[in-house]
Design goal:
With about 675 residues, this protein is an alpha+beta fold. The chain has twelve helices and 32 strands. Among the domains are: about 5-120, no CATH class; about 135-230, no CATH class; about 250-395, Elastase, domain 1 (Roll); about 595-685, Immunoglobulin-like, CATH 2.60.40.3080. The strands form eight sheets. It has a seven-stranded antiparallel beta sheet with strand order 1-4-5-6-7-3-2, covered by helices on one side. The longest helix has 22 residues, at about 400-420.
Length: about 675
């Protein structure tokens, strides 16, 4: 079952004849709410007692008990059915005086009638002016003066006779419009959802071509000052060396006078068109401007465009096949890919759709002398950038500070999953490992690899393996939006510990496997996380996702909590209080039974190199720390006559075993990885 979103007209849920009080939603004196919930925390989670709250009722019948002021209202933005569990979800946006209140949003998760869980943040007791002193035109002039670009997107209208020659199934030219301002209450300061951090402001999306950038610029509507500037693009900063020959490039054949194959992926609901400006394919994405081939055997022709096209195709496939998601928006919205050239260095980025009807991913080449060496079109980079587009439609995480670090981390996790999905026998925990440039992240142990000077750091900095302090998030310089590419390491490490297990800060995590960790991450990422989510909320939301998917007080919920605690977020989980949720639907997402799961993990055990000379390595697959403790794994080396030559008992935190074979005679040998109800034998040749 694929995810379905039902985009509704903005529905103002406001009851006019109410007496508004100072009852705050999470205040313990608010007995009306407290008596209806069995868990209520200040991070924004409310677990409702059975049959105590109907969907949509919180902001109508009980509005006066939520902290909303008389001039506040909650607008229903969208409702969607979950593809894996028997729940529906609704997202609300807070308005004050009829204007959007940034960061103040709320979500309900419910059965056909009653709410199970709700979460979010409300800006309580607001009372702000709605009358601007600066007009939209005046504010835009200030914003453009701040950006000070040489060329803006709405000025860069490339239109030739060829651009207008498109057929019925092709695309006309779409010109980026002049910026329009949105009057709203902007969140600034430390970005905590508090009245003191809000200002009436004009917001503009400004797309510049020289330099190439997308920014959201906010101008204080009362003072004319620049309030803040948030990033519009989501960048990966990665490069790569090309993969080998592939035979499943998704192209489209157009007959008639054209009689060619074009870089338009149109199988299995995909809609991806790719062009290469460096090859002279300028203008829009109609077929006149797409690379083409007569027989669909591209070889090394259009190498940049075919490589970019292929990896984005695989990112689309990963989301569709593992999560039931059709494209970035879940509805099959088209993606447009540019195999671009940039003299500013290798890079990859997702660009928000703005007023366009498509999503855009650009891969930049960083060296004219050797462009193939620096091209970032890898599986993990494509998955990373594709995930930024998914974030845009789901959580909407703001790319600054902690929320920006979470944004980058969710993209890293999806990049990792894309690489693993495409090549299940040849993946790793590194992001961007195919680079020549040292812009690599290690999810297994982030502090292994330094972030170089290129992201605005005064010197190379090693990412943290766990959350350090709130002071850390203000370093380094603002060129990396508060260190988003550095501090994403905390959730990356959490995902690894949750998947594989381990010990950190003297806190033990058993691990639940990659499939279940992915399910928890995706559920939280798409259904619970909001625009201004910080690390503390991310822990609470992940635990809530584990509870919904695998059951209250389940092993999965407990390990989710422990993995976050091992990353210095919150307390270590020892005891889980059992309180009935009143919801009996079991999750079906990626939950193989123990026998099938063991067989799947056994198939991930690998031996390399083969043939071998002085040593071999045995990768123990996806068995977690908890698995190894239960299975009592051992690794045995046998000669061709079946005689035991060596035996090793791996430690629970060993993932790869190194075995010295330098003194063995030339011949055929076998390695047996054995444990309780587990037997995997791999042969190799000693040279």
């Amino acid at each position: 079952m694929k995810t379905k979103f039902f985009y509704l007209s903005l529905i103002c849920i406001l009851t006019s004849q109410q007496v508004f009080s100072q009852n705050l939603l999470h205040d313990s004196t608010n007995t009306t709410i407290y008596l209806k919930t069995w868990e209520n925390d200040t991070l924004g989670l409310l677990w409702w007692k059975t049959d105590s709250m109907q969907a949509g009722q919180l902001f109508t019948t009980y509005k006066s008990f939520t902290g909303l002021a008389e001039n506040d209202s909650m607008h229903l933005e969208k409702t969607w059915n979950d593809p894996f569990v028997c729940l529906q979800h609704s997202k609300y946006q807070q308005y004050h005086n009829g204007l959007v209140v940034e960061g103040a949003e709320y979500r309900e998760h419910y059965t056909s009638e009653y709410v199970i869980l709700s979460n979010g943040i409300i800006a309580e007791d607001m009372s702000l002016s709605a009358s601007p002193e600066y007009s939209e035109a005046e504010a835009l002039e200030i914003a453009l003066g701040y950006v000070n670009a040489d060329l803006y997107a709405w000025q860069d209208t490339i239109e030739t006779e060829e651009d207008t020659l498109y057929e019925e199934d092709e695309e006309p030219n779409y010109v980026i419009p002049y910026p329009e301002g949105e009057l709203l209450y902007a969140l600034s300061g430390d970005r905590q959802v508090e009245t003191s951090n809000y200002s009436l402001a004009w917001k503009f999306e400004i797309f510049s071509v020289v330099p190439f950038d997308v920014k959201y610029v906010y101008v204080n509507a009362l003072t004319g000052a620049i309030l803040k500037c948030d990033p519009g693009m989501r960048c990966g900063d990665f490069t790569h060396i090309f993969y080998g020959q592939k035979t499943d490039l998704d192209t489209k054949y157009i007959g008639g006078l054209r009689n060619k194959h074009f870089l338009h992926a149109n199988d299995a609901t995909r809609d991806i068109r790719t062009k290469d400006p460096e090859k002279g394919k300028m203008g829009n994405y109609n077929y006149n401007n797409l690379p083409d081939d007569l027989d669909d055997h591209w070889d090394s022709d259009d190498w940049a465009a075919t490589s970019a096209h292929y990896v984005v195709q695989k990112a689309w496939d990963m989301f569709q096949n593992l999560a039931g998601r059709n494209g970035m928006d879940g509805l099959g919205k088209g993606v447009r890919v540019s195999a671009d050239f940039s003299t500013n260095g290798p890079n990859a980025f997702w660009v928000p759709e703005g007023s366009s009807q498509f999503e855009y991913i650009t891969f930049s080449r960083g060296s004219r002398s050797n462009p193939m060496t620096y091209y970032p079109a890898t599986y993990d980079v494509a998955g990373h950038e594709f995930a930024h587009g998914v974030t845009h439609y789901e959580s909407g995480l703001v790319g600054v500070g902690e929320s920006g670090a979470l944004d980058e981390s969710f993209s890293d996790i999806c990049g990792f999953l894309t690489e693993r999905y495409v090549d299940p026998n040849n993946w790793d925990w590194l992001i961007g490992e195919d680079f020549v440039c040292p812009q690599v992240r290690d999810m297994q142990l982030p502090s292994n690899i330094a972030i170089p000077n290129g992201l605005g750091f005064a010197h190379p900095v090693y990412p943290p393996d766990w959350y350090l302090s709130t002071d850390w998030w203000t370093y380094p310089s603002s060129s990396d939006n508060g260190g988003v590419h550095l501090n994403c390491s905390v959730q990356n490490r959490w995902f690894y510990l949750l998947s594989m297990g381990g010990t950190q800060l003297n806190k033990y995590v058993a691990g639940i496997g990659i499939a279940k960790a992915s399910a928890i991450t995706y559920f939280s990422y798409c259904n619970i996380v909001g625009k201004e989510t910080k690390y503390a909320e991310a822990k609470a939301y992940a635990i809530a996702a584990a509870r919904i998917l695998y059951g209250q007080c389940s092993f999965e919920e407990n390990q989710t909590c422990r993995a976050w605690s091992a990353c210095n977020i919150g307390n270590y989980c020892e005891v889980c209080p059992i309180v009935p949720i009143g919801w009996g639907c079991e999750a079906t997402i990626m939950t193989p039974n123990s026998i099938e799961e063991k067989e799947i993990k056994t198939n991930t055990i690998m031996l390399y190199p083969n043939p071998a000379g002085d040593e071999i390595f045995i990768y123990l697959g996806e068995f977690t720390v908890g698995d190894k403790t239960q299975l009592s794994l051992k690794v045995e080396l046998y000669d061709v006559n079946g005689r035991l030559v060596k035996e090793i008992a791996p430690k629970v935190d060993d993932w790869t075993i190194k075995m010295d074979i330098n003194n063995l005679p030339v011949g055929v040998y076998s390695v047996r990885v054995a444990g309780q109800q587990l037997n995997k034998t791999l042969k190799f040749i000693k040279q």
